[in-house]
Amino acid sequence: MNSAEKEVHDWLFKTVIGLNLCPFAKKPYNEGQIRIKSTNKKNKKEQIDFFLDELNTLQQSQNLTTSLVIFENATKDFFKFYEFEQNLSDMLYELSLEETFQLVSFHPKFIFEQEDKNSLANYVNRSPLPLIHILRSKDIALALEESKDAEALSFRNQKKIENLSAQELRYYFPFLKDIK
After folding, report:
1. Pick from 15, 22, 90, 101: nearest CA to 58
2. Residues 138-159: pLDDT tens digits?
3. Rounded to 5 degrees, what are φ and ψ at 70?
4. In angstroms, how far apart are the furthest CA atoms of the chain?
5. CA-to-CA distance for 109 and 123, rounded, in angstroms?
6. DSSP state of 122
7. Alpha helices, H only, 104-178
8. Which of 87, 71, 53, 64 is nearest to 132 (CA)?
9. pLDDT tens-digit series, residues 114-140
10. Which helix H or strand E contains 85, and what residues bound it?
11. What is the DSSP letter of 71?
């Protein structure tokens, strides 16, 4: 595990699982079914190739449920990174994998649509490094089926983060330097 993978692993354990931001993450984490891989490639084609290799690895695996693909040298501009993620999502359609996998982007400067850039709600998808979460669609459907109120999850997470003290925010999000 390199330093980028360790940093994301620690964020996953301490913040995502620790704050229960994703109640579906703990079980696959404990069972070793989450893969964390990073690339330091700067060239977009090489980054895409890395993503496709990781997608193939996940597709071939019987044991992995999800993968966090870290792009260490991706743009620091969230909106450009989001465009990149949308291009990868389009590739899923081109490969006829849109019903097999879904993608979620995480970024240190993540901003939800309709949210102010300084809103604490954005912290739900803020990560130490730019990354794309590849999820199996069947696992999402199963998790949503088991969840009593999946729609409320996003609002619950927003409230949970808004209720954290500045000290707690610094603890859970040490990679965000703008916390007062």
Report:
1. 101
2. 766 566 565 556 567 778 888 9
3. -95, 130
4. 46
5. 9
6. G
7. 137-146, 150-162, 166-172
8. 71
9. 888 888 989 999 999 999 999 987 766
10. helix 78-94
11. E
Residue 133 token pair:
């979460």
Q: Report the distance separating Cα 144 and Cα 149, nearest Å.
A: 8
Tokens representing 138? 């069947």
Separation of alpha carbons 76 and 36, rounded Å: 20
For 58, the token pair is: 């996940």
The Cα–Cα gap between 21 and 114 comes to 20
Residues in the chain: 180
First to last CA, the chain: 31
**Closest C-alpha among 155, 150, 67 to residue 112:** 155
